[in-house]
Write a structure and sequence with these properties.
This protein is α+β, with helices and mostly antiparallel strands and about 120 residues long. It has one domain (about 25-115). The chain contains 1 helix and 7 strands; from the N terminus they run αβββββββ. Strands 1, 4, 5, 6 and 7 form a 5-stranded antiparallel β-sheet that branches. A two-stranded antiparallel ribbon has the order 2-3. A hairpin with a 3-residue loop joins strand 4 (about 55-70) and strand 5 (about 75-85). The radius of gyration is 20 Å and the shape is elongated.
């Protein structure tokens, strides 16, 4: 009961903070499944030489700070953070860890056309 309440309070604080400074700051969150293709392993003598990957749960949080807004174009500094929980890889020879977790932090710059519009292409 304590954890869901804490998460709810955290989300509400983030929403209120982002709405107070919505012109310069962005915060987004995504939850979903991660699908990783199976890979063949060379040099292994086995009936099944394919490394099978499970389908892990992924959470992503992204913070962006608008650096420049020229009306028709904008530039934003972003720091996306993604966590992939409990991948569960499987290999017939069983030389893989029981569970596999991964996290990614990838700072980036995003250029938008029409940054204040409801639909804003970016790259």
């Amino acid at each position: 009961m304590r954890k869901p309440f804490s998460v709810t309070v955290l989300v509400l604080v983030m929403i209120l903070a982002s709405s107070a400074a919505a012109q310069r700051n962005e915060f987004t969150g995504i939850i979903g499944r991660t699908f990783i293709s199976d890979k063949g392993v060379t040099g292994v003598v086995s009936a099944d030489n394919i490394l099978h990957s499970g389908k892990g749960l992924t959470l992503e949080a992204n913070y962006g700070r608008r650096l420049m807004n020229l009306g028709i174009a904008g530039l934003t500094f972003e720091v996306p953070f993604a966590v992939n929980f409990n991948e569960k890889p499987h290999f017939d020879v069983n030389l893989v860890p029981k569970d596999n977790k991964a996290f990614f932090v990838t700072p980036s710059l995003r250029a938008n056309i029409f940054p204040e519009a409801g639909l804003s292409p970016w790259g």
